[in-house]
Write a structure and sequence with these properties.
transferase, 26% helix, SUA5_domain, alpha/beta, 206 residues
Length: 206
């Protein structure tokens, strides 16, 4: 049974955020809000968490997981960025974008694309997510909470708790955060390739 945290969207309660962070450190799989839609999240090196996300979403090993980072300094530890790409990404963060980039040695091999050795990274513009990342002190390994055979993610924390109570450890509810996932931009070859058009404006990458 998943623990339920009702968190204020503008002034998240520190005690609740600390409890969620402790759960993640202990290996929990959580559902949490972002600036694009709800996501599944676990600790960076949690093989169990990865396996559970794959199971819930029916994903294969070619799926790009995302490291949700607090800031640019943290993001820079996990991906290789040249100066031109740095400027393009810096101008778009925080925001509703996921960037695919070559992974550094800090990224466990099980999270990297098996052939490209890349990983997704993003810095969300969401008060609750930022509070959780600050408390956690490391990125959240994440994937959009989009269930198989459904076209849109769930938008309500209570609905997520009701439907996924048996497969999650915690649900963080701070209200509706929309159904549009992030815009995904692949910079792995040095040039911007828009992989998915979503909540982030694509015009700056076209």
């Amino acid at each position: 049974m998943a623990k339920y945290f009702d968190v204020h969207p503008d002034n998240p309660q520190p005690r609740s955020i600390a409890q969620v962070a402790d759960s993640v450190r202990s290996g929990a799989l959580i559902a949490y809000p972002t600036d694009s839609c709800y996501a599944l999240g676990c600790r960076l090196g949690s093989r169990d968490g990865i396996d559970r996300i794959r199971s819930i979403r029916h994903l294969d090993n070619r799926h790009h997981f995302t490291l949700v980072c607090q800031d640019f300094a943290q993001l820079g530890r996990f991906v290789q960025i040249d100066n031109d790409v740095f400027r393009a990404i810096k101008a778009s963060t925080p925001g509703s974008y996921t960037f695919i980039l070559p992974a550094t040695r800090e990224v466990p091999r099980m999270l990297q694309h098996p052939k490209k050795k890349t990983v997704g990274v993003r810095i969300p513009d969401h008060v609750v997510t930022q509070a959780l990342l600050a408390e956690l002190g490391e990125p959240l390994l994440s994937s959009t909470l989009l269930l198989p055979d459904e076209e849109e993610p769930m938008t309500q924390g209570w609905e997520i708790k009701d439907r996924l109570d048996h497969v999650l450890d915690a649900v963080v509810d701070s209200g509706d955060c929309g159904t549009e996932p992030t815009t995904v931009v692949d910079f792995s070859d040095g040039e911007a390739e828009i992989v998915r058009r979503g909540a982030g404006d694509t015009s700056r990458f076209e």
